[in-house]
Amino acid sequence: MALNSKLRDLILNSHVPLVLDQFPLKWECFEGSLHDWCQRFDQEASSPPDFELMALADSSTPQWERKRTKASKLSMQQFLREYGVLKEEHTHWAAYQYKRADEVPPSCRRGIDFSSFGFPVIGDDFRLWLGSEQANTPCHYDTFGVNIVVQVHGSKSWLLFPPETPLQSTRIPYEESSVYCVENFYAPDPAKIQSYEHLGRQAYHCNLQAGEVLIVPRNWWHYVEATSTSLSVNYWVPLRVDMDLVLDEFLVMHIVESFVRGESDQMKQYVLNPNQLGDLSTKPSDLYAQFEQAVQNLESGQNTRKLFDTDYISQADWKTLLNSISPTVRPLQVMPHEEYKQLLRANSKRFRNAVSPPESTPISSTWELLVSSMCAPRVIAEMKSEFFCRLRKSNSL
């Protein structure tokens, strides 16, 4: 069996995160240094990239995207000069991340190809992430796909938890296909740190270095933070099992949009992630039409993308496959509990240093809890189950 076929089978059947050490990728766009890549970007881009800034002191809650500000006319090379090494005088971190391939100049994405992992036909269906030290994504899980993350330059800390971990989910901020949790791993409150420590029995961790690849299994929670200036590329492998979850996301979208429709811009900016602000449906019937189409697609099995199956080999066969290509691929293990506590204690110092005032909220805590309760994954699953029960009875009459 070819190496890429073996990797595909490992990726699609893994129940724990995997790290591929020093994987031999030959992507033309990343030949040379990070400075070379940034220089080409500036030469070819029609306008300066839209960097986001986040205050280092803003740490009383997770660093939600709504708190970020835009950097005015910051070129890639200026980013390297100003944020390449985080210094004491810095007040913010900076990031250009979650960028689609078509947002990046052609020479800065040329040759990116995931066929080495067994997924040859993806087109430009990948994302690029560039950030300074401390640039982070609040803890969340992706509702769709298996995530392949290629670390190109620099390093990132990944703290991961399996799907069953008792983290408190929230859909505020709302982002399609992302479920956040309220736990603040960037700067845990020292007074609440014991409530975090019990999660350590399910915590996995890796410091992903340049040349390494991380596989994040479906629905795994993850908190990601750059530990140096970092550039990475990721691709979510589309799964057949995810077709069912499309309906869950439509239901969540309808609930959230129902709460904010007609409300102030301040309310919408608080409830919705910035990338969702322009995606509000013009009227509920538009969303219902999309939901009806998704139901038909699910029942007929139709989809415009190539979907992959999971769990088609036994765990015994998976381990045999893993052993056949070790040490190239290594499963992550639960991190030692003392290391987990040290990580929490180190990050909690950011909370003590916080000087920014609390975020003003245009929504009451009761309202926010109600939205998150109605959108909780188990509640949505029950709603969908009830819908299909009624649909089957309707069709049988």
UniProtKB/TrEMBL annotation:
Gene Ontology CC, one term: cytosol
Gene3D superfamilies in the cross-refs: Jelly Rolls
Predominant cellular place of this UniProt entry's protein: cytoplasm
Residues spanning the membrane: none
PROSITE patterns the UniProt entry points to: JMJC (PS51184)
Domain JmjC: from-to ranges: 93-252
SMART domains attached to this UniProt entry: JmjC
Keywords, in A-Z order: Cytoplasm
Pfam families to which the protein is assigned, alphabetical: Cupin_8 (PF13621)
GO biological process, one term: circadian behavior
InterPro entries for the chain: Cupin_8, JmjC_dom, RmlC-like_jellyroll
Record carries keyword Transferase: no
Subcellular location: Cytoplasm
Described purpose of this protein according to its UniProt entry: May play a role in cellular stress response.
Protein name: GG11570
Source organism of this protein record: Drosophila erecta
Higher taxonomy: Eukaryota, Metazoa, Ecdysozoa, Arthropoda, Hexapoda
